[in-house]
Structures are given as C-alpha cells and as structure tokens.
Design a protein that fits this description.
Blueprint: E1 3-8, H1 13-17, H2 32-43, E2 50-53, H3 57-64, E3 70-72, H4 89-95, H5 97-105, H6 118-135, E4 141-146, H7 148-160, E5 176-182, E6 185-191
Parallel strand pairs: 1-4, 2-3, 2-4
Antiparallel strand pairs: 1-5, 5-6
Helix pairs in contact: 4-5, 6-7
Length: about 190
C-alpha cells in the first residue's frame, strides 16, 4: 500500500515575523541536521521514497535534509501573495485597509493585488497533486515537501475534492501528515 507524506517546510525568518511569504524566499532558521531530526522523530525512517518539493528554497532545503534526491514541482509552490509578499497582516491592515477588509469579508473571491486568488491557487495545487499521484502510482512512498497553504489545499482536495476545508487546518512548520488510499478512499493515518 502506498503511503503519502505531506510535510511543511522548516521554520523561516518570515515565519517568525508572521509575514506572508509565497514567492519570496526566506532563510531557514534550523540546520539541515536539526530539520531531519525533527521530521524523522515524527515518522521514523523512510524506505526508498520519491521526494517532491516546491521550488522555494525553504521547501527544497527541508526536502534535501531528508537525504534523498529531490524532484522539484512548480505546481506545489505557496500562494502568490503579490504586492503583500513579506508583509504581516497588521502591516497590510495599516497600509491597505480596504484590501484587508476585503480579504476577510470575502476570502473566497479575494485576489491578492499582483498575485493569486484562492480558486486559481487551489486549482493549481490540486492539479499538480493528481499528476504526482498518477506519475508515481507504483512507488511505495511519496514525500511532498511544501508550504502551509499548499498542505491546507491538499488536505481539502484529497478529502472532499473541493476547497471547503481550506481554512479548517493550521499547519505548523515541519508538520507531517501521513495518508494512504484504501479502496480509493483517502485515509489520514496521522498528523504530527
């Protein structure tokens, strides 16, 4: 039976600041050895997985820390926050009060100025996941290292094939979600 692991990248400087960080790069805080130990303490050892990462350095270096070759997949990049990249919610509220209000009043349809909206983001991530699943259907373990928003979208897509659960999960850095399919039905074995 195939196991799929969804792993959020390790802590970054932007995470500590509470800043939106999609396409922007942000330096990892922990060493690769510390990252590997954090992840392996949650799951034990891998067999021979296919490790797939977002192209963002924070995800790629988290994936590399596991000690396997890493395949980069653009479609599992974080939300593109456009003009709000690198800003905290407080900064957005102060500098762009109308956009901030719209973000919370109509998050389903809100498009980040110069960036993506939720529907485009979700479609991109869901499509990439289906391609990964099909391409590696004969592999026992797939490890996907990505971002909080991507993993929220993936959980919603995997469980319901829509984005209705997107806001129901908080995914901390180095969170590991293990799932498998039983008779075509997705089963989340654990979230650590």
């Amino acid at each position: 039976m195939q196991s799929i692991y969804l792993i959020r990248h390790a802590r970054t400087r932007a995470n500590l600041k509470g800043a939106l960080c999609g396409k922007t790069e942000s330096e990892l805080i922990d060493s690769q050895n510390d990252i590997k130990n954090q992840i392996l303490a949650k799951i034990g050892e891998f067999g021979e997985p296919v490790v797939i990462s977002s192209p963002r350095k924070r995800a790629f270096f988290t994936a590399k820390s596991l000690g396997f070759e890493v395949v980069v997949e653009d479609g599992i990049s974080e939300f593109d926050f456009g003009d709000f990249e690198g800003m905290t919610h407080k900064e957005i509220e102060m500098e762009f009060p109308e956009s901030f209000k719209n973000l919370y009043d109509d998050s389903e349809n809100f498009k980040y100025p110069g960036g993506e909206d939720k529907k485009v983001f979700f479609s991109r991530v869901a499509h990439s996941y289906e391609i990964i699943k099909e391409k590696y259907k004969d592999v026992n373990e797939i490890v996907i290292v990505s971002h909080g928003g991507v993993i929220q979208a993936l959980i919603s897509h995997i469980l319901l094939k829509n984005d209705s659960l997107y806001w129901n999960f908080k995914i901390d850095n180095c969170t590991v979600i293990k799932l498998y399919y039983c008779g075509g039905v997705p089963v989340i074995e654990y979230i650590k």
